[in-house]
Amino acid sequence: MKKFNNELQLPPRSDGSQTGIDASVRQLIIVGSNGAGKSRFTNEMAQGQPGRVFRMSALNAIFDSTATDTTPYSIDSLYREAVDIEALPMPGQSQLSRLIALLMRDELVNLLNYKLEHTADSRISLKPTRLDSVIRLWQEIFPNNKAFLRQGRLLFSRGDSRSDYSASKLSPGEKAAMYYLGAITYAPGHADVFVESPEMFLHPTVMQALWNRIELLRPDCRFIYTTHDLDFAASRTAASVIWVRDFDMESHTWDYEILPPDKAVSDEIYMSIIGARKPVLFIEGDGKRSIDSRLYPLIFRDFTVQSLGSCNKVIEATRTFNDLNAFHHMASCGIVDRDRRDRKEVEYLRGKKIMVPEVAEVENILMLEEVIRTVAASRHKDEDRVFGKVRNAVISQFRHDLRQQALLHTRHRVKRTMEYRIDGKFQSINALEQHIEELVAEINPRRLYESFCREFSGYVEHGDYSGILRVYNQKSMIPASNVAALCGYSSKDEYINAIITLLRRDGAEAARLRKAIRSCFNLISDDDEQAG
What we know:
Layout: E1 8-9, E2 20-21, E3 27-31, H1 38-47, E4 53-56, H2 58-62, H3 75-86, H4 95-120, H5 130-141, E5 145-150, E6 153-158, H6 172-184, E7 192-196, H7 204-217, E8 222-227, H8 230-235, E9 240-248, E10 253-258, H9 267-273, E11 280-284, H10 291-299, E12 304-309, H11 311-323, H12 325-328, E13 332-335, H13 343-351, E14 354-355, H14 362-365, H15 369-378, H16 383-421, H17 429-443, H18 445-461, H19 465-471, H20 477-481, H21 483-486, H22 492-505, H23 508-519, H24 526-531
Parallel strand pairs: 3-8, 3-9, 4-7, 7-8, 11-12, 11-13, 13-14
Antiparallel strand pairs: 1-2, 5-6, 9-10
């Protein structure tokens, strides 16, 4: 795991203690309700860092102000240095306008250097600039908009319109995205990047895509976000979280808690912070490290996703939350693995707003045919060849495990039937014994087992790959199928990380993955239809 230059020093607590965040943490989120002192907490933290500190705030950047940020490495300081050296004109009173002036100045320097180098050696090619990267990424975020240079000016247009306009005419959200994308290119190497209200002015879907791109653009930097938006906090699945409860002005100390790295945001924090509310999706998995908690927020982007651990906790939380709907006015649903549940069990859960996929467990979602094909295509592999080999390997593995899997399904069915049928009132022990004897004869475990064997043999005989994924619980399926190597990756973890990265980039490949996974839950939206 990558480690940064130093651990993050935190401000003093109200109880007199002081601590730090391990140097391996790349994302830190500071949350708290309005007035809890989280902005002061962040300022104190930034001032106490021994390394390079780079600060970004869209609120301070896109509105005109005569005040300038004089801290080292700031956009204002970089612009002031350029003014002093090259007598650049002051383009305006906002930090965004100064940032654009810096980008244009770098563009000019690049062209002049190219002219000088190309004169000496015609093989020299024009190097890409910061502005090239900013324009490309900005247009990925806003695909219906265009940014371009004309006669030394950065201009914009929307859709098929032939009219163009300057940055001052952009919407606040467009300006914020342009500012963040441009500013991060000027952050010094291995900096601690402090971001105030990263969600401000941004639509939730734009917000997530933007910050995913920024973090990919600067893997050398550590990001410290200050927010009261739990939708944003939930989107940073690898982050550590600090909950700032209160600030004591007199002692200049804070009451705060560092959440354990494997713990999702607690109900207490959730209810104390939440403002603009979205439906809640309860999922299985431990904290933010499980596949569930990394995958589902990128698939169900209109939900606030909460990891609860076991399937029983998900079912109970969904029931309780919906029972209290009159109190919090928030819809909720859950997701649990299918495991070895039969159709009746699945339909019962779906009737209780618990989504159950058409595969046995979350790992099997990563083995869906369209998911494998998408990852293979993203690596310029022959997706027909890759999926064909994976399909054959999974069928072969299932054939080998068939009787064991049939026994596990039989055991589950017997257990569930006994639980349902034995819960009754009996007048005597004799009556209970007779009831159990009759149940054993009625259930007939051997008949059940043979039925599963026939069903599973049919999947093998007919090459029913989707049927196998629906009933096959096997944690070793991904490594045993060799899907990672066939797609060009060295391990199961690399293959999983590739899927997560493609979803975060939010392009055509993400749309293809999202459609495939949502269809696994029998959910196809209008957007999914268009993507297909």
